[in-house]
Amino acid sequence: MAMSRKHRRLVVLLVCLAGLGAATAFALTALRDNMVFFLAPADIASKAPSVGRTFRIGGLVETGSVAQARQDGKPVARFRVTDGKAAVTVDYAGVLPDLFREGQGVVALGALRADGTFQASEVLAKHDETYMPPEVADALKKSGQWNPPANTR
Amino acid sequence: MNQIATSPARTGHVLHRFANPGRFLRLAARVQPYLTVAALVLLVVGIGWGMFFAPADRIQHDAMRIIYIHVPAAWLASSGYLALAVCSVLSLVWRHPLADLAAAEISPVGAAVTAVALATGSIWGRPMWGAWWVWDARLTSVLVLFFLYLGHVALVRAFDDPERGQRAGAILALVGVVNLPIIKFSVDWWNTLHQPASITLSGSPTMDSRMLWPLLFSALGFSLGFGALVMARLRAAVMERRIRGLLLAQAREGNA
User: Fold this and answer.
1) Of 3.40.720.10, 2.130.10.10, 3.30.420.40, 2.40.50.140, which CATH number belongs to A37-143?
2) What does DSSP say about strands A105-112 and A74-82: parallel, antiparallel, or unpaired?
3) Which tens digit of pLDDT belongs to each residue from B183-233?
4) A124 closest CB neighbour out of B134, B189, B208
């Protein structure tokens, strides 16, 4: 049975694309653990990276956990990062980003110390996907329908 | 047997009606002014509305207004690549003459909007995240998209025989298609610093409607603007090819 040339080219193309797609899917599955930008506190609780190994931790800044002070003229901060299941205490010396707030997302680069706390060398704020003007947030709070992870103001 | 023979022929017939460059030039000359004006009006309305009239975000304040440029540019970066891939299939399988030229004209515009998305994201990231750039899955996959566009721009122009350049470019573009789902789902599959989508097909948008409307206007303006730029480039490319053909014929006649 003769296939037209167009038909044959189309079949070859589809087979190549399917193969390429499958290869990419396998590669991404194999690299799954390396593709994450940060570990959540629950990941650390179940499988903690060894002390001193550099990685990123990400989660929400626990409400009421932030303590800021000055040490040798530099700002230092201690706060807890939580994902609702576990929490890790983070120490950081330096200026925190503008978006850093209790209840907001945060990603910190650093390493665990022997006592289980995390020494951060860099702190980045993570923004979530909600956008709303302040008066809407106030109205939601007033009517009791405010349900982000925690109060930010 | 009969069915196999007729079905590709019929699609071929429909495709080739639109492949006729003369027909395209006539149609495009009529559509071009409307497309260009509509794009400019929508862009001015969408971006002006977003910058001056839409409310600021409760946490990011005015910095979130960059969304009216960043998000449409990022959408266009991905959908422009999809258009490039469709042209590449048409060119590889059906040897569609207009699709060859269209692919070569889409990639520079696509590279430009990707650059806009990367630059505006970076400008927003510095004050909001505290970093110009991070190597998370979303940012990295969009950077790969940018390099795919640049590779296509270079490859289709790298051969003396334009047809070989178009074949090579089409294959590169189709290999790069695997990157599109990676970009789209990177924020869901892996932990990223980049936030997930606010506007999805399945749920209601997690964005106030007074911010959503100017964003949609701006996105439509970007899309029509992308179309207008590609159409203008494609018209120029078709005419350029005609002139080259005429000069070639003239030179042959002179020799004879």
Assistant:
1) 2.40.50.140
2) unpaired
3) 999 988 888 889 888 988 777 888 888 899 999 999 999 999 999 999 999
4) B134
The length of chain B in residues reads: 256
Pairwise CB contact (< 8 Å): B190 & A127: no
Which residues of chain B neighbour A9 with C-beta distances below 8 Å?
Answer: 92-93
Q: Does this model's pTM top 0.90? A: no
Q: A-chain residues within 8 Å CB-CB of B210? A: 133
Give the DSSP letter string of A8-62: HHHHHHHHHHHHHHHHHHHHHHHTHHHH-S-B-HHHHHHSPPPTT-EEEEEEEEP
What is the SS3 assignment for A76? Answer: strand
Residues A131/B64, Cβ–Cβ less than 8 Å = yes
Ranges of each domain in chain A: 1-35, 37-143
Q: Which residues of A touch B60 (CB under 8 A)?
A: 99, 127, 131
pLDDT, tens digit (0-9, with 9 covering 90-100), for B53-92: 988 888 888 888 999 999 999 999 999 999 999 999 999 9
Angle formed by the axes of helices B21-48 and B97-128, nearest 10°: 20
Burial of A70 (0-12, 13-18, 19+ CB in 10 A): exposed
For the record, the structure tokens of B256 come out as 């004879």
Which amino acid is located at B19 in the chain?
A
Out of B129, B191, B206, name the one closest to residue A97 (CB).
B129
